[in-house]
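Help needed: design a sequence for this.
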């Protein structure tokens, strides 16, 4: 199996947990794409969304 998106994150930041690395990468990627394309309302708390999303992955 190749490293792909879980490589650097899974091996370094998450102690080799590639599933957690992939989930974190997918969340971050989705948030960035939504932000770039203006898919959040102007009053959205993006900092709060990032914090809650990451906290849900890393309780």
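Sure. Designed sequence:
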């Amino acid at each position: 199996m190749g490293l792909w998106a879980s490589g650097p994150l899974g091996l370094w930041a998450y102690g080799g947990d590639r599933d957690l690395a992939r989930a974190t990468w997918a969340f971050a990627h989705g948030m960035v794409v939504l932000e770039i394309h203006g898919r959040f309302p102007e009053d959205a708390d993006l900092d709060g969304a990032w914090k809650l999303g990451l906290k849900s992955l890393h309780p």
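The radius of gyration is 13 Å.
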